[in-house]
């Protein structure tokens, strides 16, 4: 894969600017792992162009802080939108790029299918039994799902992957560890899921320094410039989104030409479709987690959604109510 050409410009503030030029027309210009330069002084303070964009105006954010596309470096960095003059920084170890970041008076409550996963209990239980329940509906399990997704992502290996609605990072960690991507963004709306993700990363020495970023964002307002991302993964997520059409439109906006979207979800109206039961049953009843609370779609609806949002080469694999689908940005 061609590396982006970049130049270093010495500015008056004794910092180094990176300017990244498009290396080829069909690859994203953002290559976090490739962006490297020696700092001019020992402070290692630099300003560099990032893959992240302002969630308000989608202008690329300017970053100030230590080098590197990894959790510790991003945590110690500040991000600013020159157009909106709004600053973003890491809160509790993840970078908060929601529109509401910094608002003091305004609060917003999302639908139950989004709010449920913000709970510390659900976030804790998610990889400790909750997700295993999906097997009863035909989900083949994380290892097999990861393999299926990796097959779909073959054409975009080496690029920037965004794991949208990553939960506690089950697949983000696998993508990062695979070494197949220049950068992996684990993105979710739930603060507690991201904190869980950090806990899992912390316990695994092989992940902390990998090209992995933790970002809080809304799938309907993805903090990336248009046509800047090579791969978007959304595992078991579409049925949780407040508006699947807004979400898929956003995913289509950020994918560069040739970029690949892979998603999985529970299909509507298929026998065996279930939300977590067993030890979770009483909790489920408490929050009235019925299938109608989730937004399950049919196979035809998912295909229609992808095509109507400008994606092509739609293909899918179905097993009971599990569907994994893939579509490409032309
Ligand atoms: C069932 S979990 C899927 C987690 C993981 N991707 C997996 O495959 O197991 C669904 C995730 O969607 C996230 N989610 C719900 N609404 C969202 C929104 N508006 N924007 C981003 N993520 C959202 C939830 O926080 C939750 O972590």
Automatic annotation (TrEMBL):
Keyword Cytoplasm tagged: no
Gene Ontology BP annotations: methylation
Gene3D superfamilies, sorted: Vaccinia Virus protein VP39
Main location group: plastid
Nucleotidyltransferase recorded as keyword: no
GO cellular component, one term: plastoglobule
UniProt cross-references to SUPFAM superfamilies, sorted A to Z: S-adenosyl-L-methionine-dependent methyltransferases (SSF53335)
Keywords: Chloroplast, Methyltransferase, Plastid, Transferase, Transit peptide
Highest taxon of the lineage: Eukaryota
Annotated Methyltransferase type domain residues: 162-262
Protein name per the record: Methyltransferase type 11 domain-containing protein
